[in-house]
Design a protein that fits this description.
With 448 residues, this protein is of the alpha/beta class. It has 18 helices and twelve strands. A seven-stranded mixed beta sheet has the order 9-8-7-6-10-11-12, sandwiched between helices. Strands 1-2-4-3-5 form a five-stranded mixed beta sheet. The model has no long low-confidence stretch (mean pLDDT 97). The site of NADPH dihydro-nicotinamide-adenine-dinucleotide phosphate has 25 residues, from helix 10.
């Protein structure tokens, strides 16, 4: 379907012609440009200064060979990426993803989204993303360390505390950040806050591991409050059981909700009495085991093979926190049929475009990932501030700032949606509010 503005439609068509194979990236661009129609039509500067054609093209895209040696002594080769999308409002900032399905299209989609997400936090951070088609699952500690070192051997020349500050994402947790940081420090002969998500003993921030999950629940609470609803006493389904899902489960429980289902890529568990997040933490963070072993701790719970079935579990609110496109049109129809009242994205773009349409057309509350999962990068921004000040703030200080930031993001999205004639449409509001700050900075800085 054509975007209903000739300038935006032209930019999108040109991008589709140049990158026809980049499905995820094109999907993300189309979604944002569609929301920008009233903005472009109310201010001709964006077209005059070529803002949209510039904002959809990364400032720099690096792809590189990563060669390393496995435990059997065999040489292995993976592809590494760093996409530095936009630095109008601050140094490039965004995570690294290590997973076998990583492609240039996925990293470009994530980097594009990150530009708007970082803008929404109001902190001075540009947008970037990176990663590799290397999957740490099934690899030994030594293999993971050697891979991270080989990856940094190239990445180090493209990053710096005022240039580009990567962080973790899927497959890149505290362990990988540690190995990456160690190698950066050795190569650059420089201790600086060049990565976030660091361990507490070497410059990390308290509340960073919790930030995306806690932030998601702060955002959802603000949105529910505006709608006269609350998490307290509600039944909640959270997909995934990684970093975002675990801390979403903790905060939802603390706010009075009952989390009745969670998943991993093999299947899902249902515990009608409320999932104990401490058990999930033990299984996933300590033992690095499968979610099916939850039944060893709580024999009354159920385990069902296959992850997409989780959306057939009846609940008040759904929080997809696993991966992109995990809620299909069919799953969205099931959520509507089961009386779900809201869907809040924790993962990056976990709903397909068709699924989003079904959720919104049926009047469910919907929050897009670039707004509701911005808590992680917000606290990464706070980690950068602490590193440059050589200070460490308390958990309560950081958590308090996170809560304020998430509530502000919700209100600025709601206000932008209202101002441009789409009241209640937080998806459009997030795209507009995120765009305006970056676009205005780009105009001020000239054509560069
Ligand atoms: P993790 O690697 O910690 O966890 C991902 C989880 O999702 C794992 O439990 C994994 O299971 C599960 N999973 C993967 N695919 C599926 C599937 N198809 N169905 C069900 N479960 C699945 O990643 P994060 O929690 O860090 O990230 C999750 C999402 O949130 C990603 O989209 C990421 O980009 C986004 N995000 C993360 C942020 C952060 O701060 N961590 C910040 C902002 C966004 P298994 O163990 O079987 O692989």
């Amino acid at each position: 379907m054509a975007i209903s503005n000739s300038y935006l439609n032209g930019v999108y068509k040109d991008l589709s012609r140049r990158y026809p194979e980049q499905k995820e990236f094109l999907e993300a661009v189309e979604e944002v440009l569609t929301s920008l129609v009233p903005v472009i039509e109310s201010d001709d500067r964006y077209e005059k200064y070529g803002i949209v054609e510039r904002i959809v093209e990364p400032e720099r895209a690096v792809s590189f060979r990563v060669s390393w040696i496995d435990d059997a002594g065999k040489v292995r080769v993976n592809t590494g990426y760093r996409i530095q999308f936009n630095s109008a409002i601050g140094p490039y900032k965004g995570g690294l993803r290590f997973r076998d399905n990583v492609t240039l299209s996925i990293i470009k989609f994530l980097g594009f989204e990150q530009t708007f997400k970082n803008s929404l936090t109001t902190l001075p951070m540009g947008g970037a993303k990176g990663g590799s088609d290397f999957d740490p699952k099934g690899k030994s500690e030594g293999e993971i360390m050697r891979f991270c070192q080989a990856f940094m051997n190239e990445l180090f020349r493209h990053i710096g505390p005022s240039v580009d500050v990567p962080a973790g994402d899927i497959g890149v947790g505290g362990r990988e950040i540690g190995y990456l940081f160690g190698q950066y420090k050795k190569l650059a002969n420089n201790w600086s806050g060049v990565l976030t998500g660091k361990g507490l003993s070497y410059g990390g921030s308290l509340a960073r591991p919790e930030a995306t999950g806690f932030g998601l629940m702060y955002f959802a609470s603000a949105m529910l409050k505006d709608a006269g609803k609350s998490l307290d006493g509600s039944k909640v389904v959270i997909s995934g059981s990684g970093n975002v899902a675990i801390y979403s489960c903790q905060k939802a429980t603390e706010l009075g909700a009952k989390v009745i289902a969670m998943s991993d890529s093999n299947g899902y568990i249902v515990d009608e009495n409320g999932i104990d997040f401490k058990i999930i933490k033990e299984i996933k963070e300590v033992k690095r085991d499968r979610i099916s072993t939850y039944l060893d701790y709580v024999p009354t719970a159920k385990y069902i093979v296959g992850c997409e079935g989780i959306w057939s579990t009846k609940c008040d609110y759904a929080f997809p926190c696993a991966t992109q496109n995990e809620i299909s049109k069919e799953s969205a129809e099931l959520l509507v049929k089961n009386g779900t009242k809201g869907v809040f994205e924790g993962a990056n773009m976990p709903l397909t475009p068709d699924a989003i349409k079904i959720i919104k057309n049926n009047g469910l509350l919907f929050s897009p990932s670039k707004a509701s999962n911005a808590g992680g990068v917000a606290v990464s921004g706070l980690e950068m501030s602490q590193n440059s000040e050589r200070l460490s703030w308390s958990f309560e200080q950081v958590d308090g700032m996170l809560k304020d930031i998430m509530e502000n993001i919700y209100h600025s999205c709601a206000m932008a949606a209202e101002k441009y004639g789409m009241p209640g449409d937080i998806q459009a509001g997030a795209n507009i509010a995120g765009f305006l700050k970056v676009a205005d900075a780009m105009i001020a800085q000239g054509v560069v």
